[in-house]
């Protein structure tokens, strides 16, 4: 028997596209003479339908798509497709088991995901253990519930994503019911290193429950923020048999195991966070571009670490996409087939495409350094992006003069430091937005998670943008990733960027402004952030956890913790206003997906005064 897992790149409510992916995969599965194929969780409507799950039509549409469009393509094969479904006035997250053109069983999820980026309890009800009932729709009845399904030589049981991550999981009971094949349709968000945890889960489950375990995750940037890595695994009694390439640019992938090959073994996944970051953001940008039907990206390129990272990631989106899809399919997917002729005439399609998809601008002021200009220019040249350079001193001066006339006093760096910095960052915004509008392109904002923590950014200035690809990753990671990218991805001109210390370049040059002097060392900021925000420790607890670490002397540590908590609380409103970003790391500070915090609060006044006096 040939058993398969399949991944799908779906889009909310894209009935035509989503069913096409499923039907294409089914037709390939039939060509390969597969017997059973497991598709991911909620794959008919997509996982990220958000509050549309509340509607009373969406689940019906899913059921119609399943029975009218997909079922006719399931003759001679068994498959599992995920969909939402209302039964007795409650919404359930179900796996539909189909055999030879017939919908046989509906098996609902028993444990709902409700942590981090998941909010399933908001829409769905967990199905009670052991309960079996009948679901009726359009005069037809189907068994719904905690079923074990006999199919050929197998007794099949289900764990739907989160089901498998709990201690009290269905597999404990399925084993007692004689199940020897567990299918797991998943919608498991990407996070750095997470694939290792999933691999361990799948391999160990197959061992512990003495079964074959099939895992199939969704793929791509489905709905804007969450990324799925499209992982497919099959494990048998503690051995990994099948594992696919993650983060594919394709519409779907299938991986199968012929169970007559009893000795088959797959290579275990070894994680490389630099590559995971590269592939995940490249795929997320690609899907965002094509699904938003935009013409490309516009980026204010400073030659600093953040904007350079964004530029490289767009370039990697093109390179990886071309390598995996080929030119024709790449252009079809971004709705640009008309570029075909021009690009084939060129020796390096990736740079010709970069020139069309990425427009950058260096926007100098009298405070900008020549080295950042050179770093930006050389990087844009290496990538092939359009590079403009203009000066914004006139705009800054016009605004400043108007204010001075009305205030009837000169603006000075001694009195007006932050305002004089912010006006420069803001003066860059209207013109770069204008370019984005002219190109009908997405404006990239270069915000990273560390600056989001402490609000080290000008609202409506350098926060301007429609998409924030690196807002979920910390600056310490970015600095190290760029060094890796210079050699591993062979961007020679990154050497100019990598020589610079991060600086906003908003104060006069003689003040030698650097981010780390304004804030604290980025590595320290990261350690404080992990304890204060991820682990929710109090200021004193953060201090106690770090005081014996070699990361900073006690004076700097205490000062930095106080600064972190003050800036964190003061800047929740800024985090609420950042452009949509992808979820990338094991945690996140985005209030819309992960980390809720009050906009107004005491600012931990009492807790910080205790820390100040702490020994
Ligand atoms: N709770 C709240 N809800 C709504 N608004 C609130 C608020 N608290 C303050 N505000 C308002 O926020 C405004 C201040 O915010 P904003 O104008 O953004 O400016 P602000 O946060 O005061 O300053 C920006 C900081 O970012 C740094 N920066 C800027 C630009 C680029 C870079 C770089 O690294 O390249 C760094 C700059 O050095 C400075 O330290 C004030 O008008 C204040 O009234
Ligand atoms: N001279 C400039 N030309 C174009 N854009 C700029 C310039 N200075 C700043 N910006 C924009 O403002 C953003 C915020 O600046 P910030 O200093 O935080 O990032 P960076 O310059 O990319 O990296 P780093 O902080 O490591 O220097 C930049 O990423 C860039 O988009
Ligand atoms: N969709 C889900 O149930 C996902 C939950 C699970 N904890 C995961 O991240 O993989």
UniProtKB/TrEMBL annotation:
Pathway the protein acts in: Cofactor biosynthesis; NAD(+) biosynthesis; NAD(+) from deamido-NAD(+) (L-Gln route): step 1/1
Active-site feature positions: 41 (proton acceptor), 109 (for glutaminase activity), 161 (nucleophile)
Enzyme Commission code: 6.3.5.1
Residues covered by the CN hydrolase domain: 1-270
Superkingdom of origin: Bacteria
Binding site for deamido-NAD(+): 422, 451, 574
Keywords: ATP-binding, Ligase, NAD, Nucleotide-binding
Binding annotation for L-glutamine: 188, 194
Catalysed conversion reaction: deamido-NAD(+) + L-glutamine + ATP + H2O = L-glutamate + AMP + diphosphate + NAD(+) + H(+)
Keyword Zinc assigned: no
EC class of the enzyme, as a word: ligase
InterPro entries the record matches: C-N_Hydrolase, C-N_Hydrolase_sf, Gln-dep_NAD_synthase, NAD/GMP_synthase, NAD_synthase, Rossmann-like_a/b/a_fold
UniProt-annotated binding residues for ATP: 446
PANTHER family, per the entry: GLUTAMINE-DEPENDENT NAD(+) SYNTHETASE (PTHR23090:SF9), NH 3 /GLUTAMINE-DEPENDENT NAD + SYNTHETASE (PTHR23090)
Sequence similarity: Belongs to the NAD synthetase family.
NCBIfam families linked to this entry: nadE
Its job: Catalyzes the ATP-dependent amidation of deamido-NAD to form NAD. Uses L-glutamine as a nitrogen source.
Name assigned to this protein: Glutamine-dependent NAD(+) synthetase
């Amino acid at each position: 028997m040939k058993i398969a897992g399949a991944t799908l790149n779906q889009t909310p409510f894209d009935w035509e596209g989503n069913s096409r992916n499923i039907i294409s995969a089914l037709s390939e599965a039939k060509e390969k003479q597969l017997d059973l194929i497991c598709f991911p969780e909620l794959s008919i409507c997509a996982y990220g339908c958000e509050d549309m799950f509340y509607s009373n039509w969406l689940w019906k549409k899913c059921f119609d798509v399943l029975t009218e469009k997909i079922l006719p393509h399931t003759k001679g094969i068994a498959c599992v497709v995920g969909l939402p479904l209302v039964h007795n006035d409650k919404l359930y997250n179900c796996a539909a088991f189909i055999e030879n053109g017939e919908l046989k069983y509906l098996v609902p999820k028993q444990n709902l995901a409700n942590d981090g980026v998941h909010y399933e309890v908001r829409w769905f009800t967990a199905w009670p253990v052991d309960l079996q009932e009948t679901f009726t729709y359009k005069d037809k009845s189907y068994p719904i519930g905690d079923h074990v399904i006999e199919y050929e030589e197998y007794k099949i049981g289900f764990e739907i994503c989160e089901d498998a991550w709990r201690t009290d999981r269905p597999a404990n009971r399925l084993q007692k019911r004689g199940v020897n094949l567990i299918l797991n349709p998943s919608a498991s968000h990407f996070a750095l290193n997470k694939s290792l945890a999933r691999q361990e889960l799948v391999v160990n489950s197959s061992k512990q429950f003495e079964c074959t375990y099939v895992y199939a995750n969704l793929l791509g940037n489905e709905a804007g923020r969450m990324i799925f890595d499209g992982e497919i695994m099959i494990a048998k009694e503690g051995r990994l048999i099948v594992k696919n390439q993650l983060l594919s640019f394709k519409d779907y992938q299938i991986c199968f195991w012929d169970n007559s090959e009893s000795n088959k073994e797959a290579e275990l996944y070894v994680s490389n966070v630099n590559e995971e970051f590269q592939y995940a953001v490249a795929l997320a940008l690609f899907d965002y571009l094509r699904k938003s039907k935009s013409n490309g990206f516009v980026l204010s390129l400073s030659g600093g670490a953040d904007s350079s990272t964004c530029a490289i990631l767009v370039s990697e989106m093109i390179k990886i996409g071309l390598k995996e899809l080929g030119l024709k399919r790449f252009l079809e997917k971004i709705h640009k087939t008309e570029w075909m002729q021009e690009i084939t005439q060129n020796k390096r399609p990736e740079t010709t495409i970069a020139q069309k998809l990425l427009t950058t601008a260096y926007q100098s002021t009298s405070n900008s350094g020549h080295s950042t200009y050179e770093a930006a220019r050389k990087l844009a040249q290496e990538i092939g992006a359009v590079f403009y350079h203009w000066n914004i001193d006139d705009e800054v001066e016009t605004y400043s003069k108007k204010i001075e006339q009305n205030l009837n006093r000169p603006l000075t760096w001694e009195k007006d430091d932050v305002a004089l910095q912010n006006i420069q960052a803001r003066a860059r915004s209207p013109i770069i937005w204008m370019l984005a509008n002219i190109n009908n392109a997405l404006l990239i904002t270069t915000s990273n998670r560390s600056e989001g923590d402490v609000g080290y950014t000008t609202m409506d200035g350098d926060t301007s943008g429609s998409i924030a690809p690196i807002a979920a990753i910390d600056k310490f990671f970015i600095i190290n990733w760029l060094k890796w990218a210079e050699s591993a991805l062979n961007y020679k001109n990154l050497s100019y960027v990598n020589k610079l210390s991060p600086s906003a370049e908003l104060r006069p040059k003689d003040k030698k402004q650097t981010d780390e002097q304004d804030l604290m060392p980025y590595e320290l900021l990261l350690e404080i952030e992990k304890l204060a925000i991820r682990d929710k420790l109090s200021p004193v607890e953060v201090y106690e956890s770090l005081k014996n670490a070699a990361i900073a002397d006690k004076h700097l540590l205490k000062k930095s913790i106080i600064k972190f908590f003050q800036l964190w609380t003061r800047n929740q409103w800024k985090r609420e206003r950042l452009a949509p970003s992808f979820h990338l790391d094991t945690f996140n500070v985005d209030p819309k997906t992960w980390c809720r915090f009050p906009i107004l609060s005491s600012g931990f006044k009492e807790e910080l005064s205790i820390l100040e006096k702490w020994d």
